[in-house]
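User: Predict the structure for this protein chain, please.
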Amino acid sequence: MKHTRRDFLKTAALGTAALGAGLASRSRVWAAEPPLVRVVQVTSPGVMTATGPEPTRVLEMVRRGLLEITGKPTAAEAWGRFLGPKDIVGLKINPLGAPLLTTHHEVVLGVAQTLQDAGVPLDQIVVWDRGQADLGKAGWTLADAPGKMRVLASDVAGWDETAYCDCDPADAQGSRRSRFSKILTQRTTRLVNLPVLKHHPAVGVSMALKNVTFGVCDNVSRGHADHCAPFITTVFQQPSLQRRLTLVIADALRPQYAGGPGGDAGAQWNCDSLLFAIGQPSADAVGVAIIDAKRQEMGLPPVAQTDDKPDYLTAIGADGLGIVDLAKIRWDKITL
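Assistant: Here is the predicted structure, written as C-alpha cells:
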C-alpha cells in the first residue's frame, strides 16, 4: 500500500522529536521551541582488544545505555517501554563493510541478552539484513528454527508486494517503487536499529537513517542521487517502518572516518562507544559530529565541506521528521 509524505506528516511526523507526546499534543510541541532530545554515548575505554570487543564489557555498556536513555532502573523495564514478550524483535544490523566494518556480534548478542531478560524468547529475536552474502561475510549463518535466535536475509525471505513506497529518482527501467522486506512487514513486530558508524561517499556519514531506509527495501541503488535526501526522507516516514521503530543502538566501537562504505583499517579508530537514541535523526546528528571531530584530528575537513554532504539530515529536519540540530540535542557522555 502506498503512503504519501502528506499522509504520514498528518499522523506521525513528531514521533522522534517529542518522546511521550500524544498525537493530540504534537502540534503544540512544534508551535513552540521543541524540547531537547537525548542521545546517550556510553564509552568503555579499552573495550576493543586486538581480537575484537570484550563481550562482558559490551553487555555492561548495553545495559547502562538502556537505563540512561529511558530512565528506567532495569534493562527489562527499559525494553518494556517499547515492546513486550509477545513481540518478534528484529535486530537490523549493517554488515556491508564486513569483515572490517560491521555491527559487531558482541553488540548484537548483548542486545539479545537484554531482550531475553525482558521476557522476549530467543526465537522471537531476529538478526537480519538485506543480503545473505553480506551476512555471511560478517560471520552470520541463516537460521530459522524454533528455540534459537533467527538470522534472516531479505533476498531470501522476499519483498512485500503490498508494502512499498514510490519516490524519485526512478531506476534505469523507470521504476520508482521500493518494496519493504517481508522480514520487516511479516516476520517482525518491532525493530531495534543496530547500525555501524562510518563515512559514506554518498551521504557523508552512514548510521541510523541509512540503515533503516536503504537496508529494509529493494531497488535502492537509485536512492543515492542528491546525497540520498529524497529517498531517505520518503522511506523513513512510511508507517510500515515507523510503527515498528524502537531504539537506535549504534555500534561506534571502531568507526571509520574516511574511505567508506567498505572497511578500511587505516581509516578506523577505537572510539569504544555505543550510541543510544530514540530519535533516529538525532542519533545521526551526533554520529556526524563524532566523525567530523575525528576528521579534524586527522587534518580532514568536515563532511559538510566536501562533496559527501549529509543533505539527508537537512531534509529530515526541514520535513519535521526529527531533531537534527545539535543545539537541540542533549548529548550525554557516560564513561564506564
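Residues 204 and 308 are 4 Å apart (CA to CA).
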